[in-house]
Amino acid sequence: MRVTRPMLAGAAAAAVLALAGCGSGGDAAAKVPPTATGSLESLAAEVKCKPDMQTDADTIRQAICVTSDGKFVLATFSTDRGQREWINEAKDYGGYYLVGRKWVAVGDDGVVTALRGTLGGAVEIGTDHSAHSHGHSG
Fold first, then answer.
1. What are the C-alpha distances in Å from 55 to residues 19, 130, 134?
2. I need a labelling partner for 135 at 20 to 30 A (CA). Which of 24, 40, 62, 68 fits?
3. Residues 80-104: pLDDT tens digits?
């Protein structure tokens, strides 16, 4: 199966929109462990989730995960460049991204903060377009 960038961007957008919601940030993680590495399955096992595979291609593997902290998308990539391109396109849809070497977890602020306590990594925040959404007066 050949997966094109527009397909991946669409999948990322759908994932972010499906997971979008208000996060409860709480206190920042006191200690961040070294960034985890490994396959999608090994990363999922570290955070105690059974991945529900959505995309299984040569360049990207993507799954929905649910833990006691909430729901998130976990994706692994065959190349650093492919990962960065995916993140750059996906960030246009907002959301919170926990980024490791050739993997990313996408969810709300609270989930990403909790995952960072186990997986390490760096947090990146997508573009917030809420100010541009259709206005409601009230």
1. 17, 28, 32
2. 24
3. 999 999 999 999 999 999 999 999 9
pLDDT tens figures, 118-135: 999 999 999 876 655 555
pLDDT tens profile 34-48: 999 999 999 999 999
C-alpha–C-alpha distance, residues 36 and 33, integer Å: 8
What does DSSP assign to residue 47? T
Distance CA 23, CA 76 (A): 24
Residue 41: name the closest of 53, 27, 30 by CA.
Answer: 53
Query: Which DSSP string corresponds to 115-135?
Result: HHHHH--EEEE----GGGSPP
